[in-house]
Amino acid sequence: MDDLLYLQRQDKQLEEYESRCRRCGECCGSNGDDPCANLTRDKNDNYNCVAYANRLGSQRTVSGKEFNCVLIRDIVKFDLPYSKCPYVK
Hints:
Strand order of the largest sheet: 1-2
Number of helices: 1
Helix content: 10-25%
Largest sheet: 2 strands, antiparallel
Shape: globular
Distance between the termini: 35 Å
Radius of gyration: 15 Å
Structural class: alpha+beta
Number of domains: 1
């Protein structure tokens, strides 16, 4: 039972964390010259990842450079240059 409660609490924390996202796309390079190739923009100027469910791990930028996509919560402890990102505030 403790394991189930732990998993439920962990799911709730992840949901709360993900709800902070403003869909600015900064963490995926929307303001740079070579964003992630999976990054799309909708009619409301919100950014979305077309590979969101499978985004973690090896990905490519628009120009073809390979990088590893990670959860932003794993890197918020660093001084990130994302001015709009609610994760770093």
